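Q: I'm writing up a methods section and want to include an example of the input and output format. Could you take the sequence below and give the corresponding predicted structure tokens, formatted cleanly so I can copy it straight into the document?
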Amino acid sequence: MKKYFASAEFKRLNVKRAKSRLKQHLLSKEKQKVKRKNIWNIEALDNSKNKKKRQRIRVSKNIFLFKATAYAPEDFRLLENVEGCLTFFRNIRSEEYLNQIKGVKFVIMSLEKVTEIDYGTISILTAISDDLKYKGIILRGDFPKKAECKQFIIDSGFLNHMVNEKNQKFPKSKKSDLIFFEKGCGVLSFEDNKKISALVKDVVNHLTGENKYSLSVKTIILEICGNSIEWASTENKQWLLGVKYETERVFFTVTDVGKGILETLYRKFTKRFFDTFKTDDEILKGAFNKKYGSSTKELNRNKGLPAVKTNFEQGTINNLRVLTNNVALQFGDDSNSKTFGKGSPRFKGTFYQWEMTKECLNKSIS
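A: Here is the clean output for your methods example:
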């Protein structure tokens, strides 16, 4: 009598079961690989001009998944193409570009067509990436084809918190740094203060060639960063300090992706009535002149905003730019300050950028 395990029926069922288990194993392996990781430089991004086109991507043998890709604008400079960049940031944070496979959520974006990029864009992209990661959403992307833009991303420190398609960390950049800080209960922790103190030494050394500490530089940073502690409200309670070293100057950025200043302002009824005749950029300027309190109505709030403006007026910082909600401010040049109209993209959060030179450093000390 022929044994069952040698029969054609048994062999057919056994092969079917083996294929099913292999498929589950491969999918589980891929899921674990990307879990809680941001993966950069994937190879299967679509090259068509359709920004919302859905594409078929091979995850592993015999497993295909459908995904949507968000494409960055060619001019990916935040302060020169604000609306184009904000549209892209809105897309990667929207449900429309959110994909989910077997419980793994992810967003795919492409920087392939980018021909120009700046440090402000890198800072916001990093903060959004961290916020998505906190929500259990993975951010995947590729590099620009243009070599200069690709190198700029590598030098910016953006990849410090990323892994490649082989799940390996990228080398840490020495030309810039992006540091996350916990907002906590409204004050910097001891560890956060140590991070900023070490960063201040690096900044002074870059500008003067002397390896020493400057309390005045740290005070400037704390006044601006303290503002993010007060106003920001991201779910993961983090904000980002970015520093980029260039010849004879240092770029600083502070980014949070919470509600933004205008969304958290508290205005009395009388002020609110007169504000109906003002643009939002005029209202934001009023906050920097201490005309408004925060939404919490606490007396110790709203001290950071006027301090930011004072530092600019004293020349201890240069080229101060602020972006929040539907307003972009450039201090010292009102022609470049504006409110975005209805239907235009908004920035859900607050972004500061400024520069320091050796001359700024001398003014801060004197």
